[in-house]
């Protein structure tokens, strides 16, 4: 029995489907994995030994590669993960050997207002509870590895400030002269804990550590998570782990995890996490879940390793980039594809009538508040105005030389006239358009969507990057700001300008990619500006260095690496059935 999503919650639908889902051993056989390539975590979740698979299948051609992105979302999200699952199910209904690769959710949004990003309705990734609550421990490993780096840093500060050179030499340590006022890293935790953004550590006596300002970021913003996303293998991860800049010395030189001699131990925490996790859609298509979310404050991509394995095992691979095309797709295009060497065949831009209305002038929807009645009534003029935002993102995909497909993620309140308006304007902009009802009907509701993607994948494209690595940092930022965001130019705070000038003189930093940090709620750096604003400049307030991951990270606008928990968070509705042990209330 398949439950009706208009009458049942996501967790109820997932729980019913889990009673008949495939075991990982069935998935292994369908994928053609050998026995020792599967590393089970119970009967329904497993890791896959990526190194064995890639070595065995190194001469097999790759499948078709599809990226799913979206228009600028409302705070409620527009169903990008749901559409990724729906497309995978639709391709499965068409008889295609298809695999999805998605990101592991963070405990922060899962316990807050956004949910676990498993999809929704009849297009979900299951089993839902392990997916949402830690899975196989990858994020826990990231937290331990990252925080061990902070332990090494703060311990070294304590010993250097409290000890003589002779004492340090007896421990075979050299003085690093770390500047406690110029520390790059913070501690991490995988919740939205605004009270920990800014803290003082080392209170007490000399044995209680060095007293200094510090703070917490959310776990998935960690450079260790970024390294998991882009590492090609264990050797590559080990090399990257030693390049993480944790602080600067009193002369302004970087102090790395390698200098602290903690990089090997940090890598040890990550060995098992390097293998992607195997799960499935609600209809049984294999799904790799690996690396983390948040393209507004991180790279926001599933791992290169998961994509490479899937492309060897499947004829079609559907991956997902975080948030809209200005953020997640731009990083997929200019960072992930460059680092992986993979070339996409198609990119999907997910749109909802709800979000188009918001961009066209409707009252903005807010989490935890009832949706304005205007969203349940026909307003073609708002939809047409909002399509300016959709067309902007279509054009971004076309600038990459990739074939765009617009997925209208259908809601039951959408009207025929509103849908016709989107079709007309998106097709005029050069995109294929498909109406998809995967949320309500699963793969059967995504057949038009699947057909459009198959057609797009069969057409040639002309993939090209927005910039080359020889392009100076400020020129890259300006290209992204103008060509992707639609800004008139870029402004810098004095601190950010000083860093940019210094970085452009460093040949090692010049080789790094550019990973922008910006709000996901607007094309601009102001989350309240909707549609396609004109006459504005992107303001860069800081520039971070993720040398291990291979990124320079310009930070635009007032965005925090530690989100806050809302007044009505999801954890209020999550509980456990004490008779069965089943978790209820996840979404």
TrEMBL record:
Pathway annotation: One-carbon metabolism; tetrahydrofolate interconversion
GO MF annotation, one: ATP binding
Catalysed reaction equations from the record: (6S)-5,6,7,8-tetrahydrofolate + formate + ATP = (6R)-10-formyltetrahydrofolate + ADP + phosphate
Keywords carried by this UniProt record: ATP-binding, Ligase, Nucleotide-binding, One-carbon metabolism
GO BP: tetrahydrofolate interconversion
EC assignment: 6.3.4.3
InterPro entries: Formate_THF_ligase, Formate_THF_ligase_CS, P-loop_NTPase
Binding site for ATP: 74-81
Database matches in PROSITE patterns: FTHFS_1 (PS00721), FTHFS_2 (PS00722)
SUPFAM superfamilies assigned to the protein according to its UniProt record, in alphabetical order: P-loop containing nucleoside triphosphate hydrolases
Family: Belongs to the formate--tetrahydrofolate ligase family.
NCBIfam families (alphabetical): PRK13507.1
UniProt cross-references to HAMAP family, sorted A to Z: FTHFS (MF_01543)
Stated name of the protein: Formate--tetrahydrofolate ligase
Gene that this sequence comes from: fhs
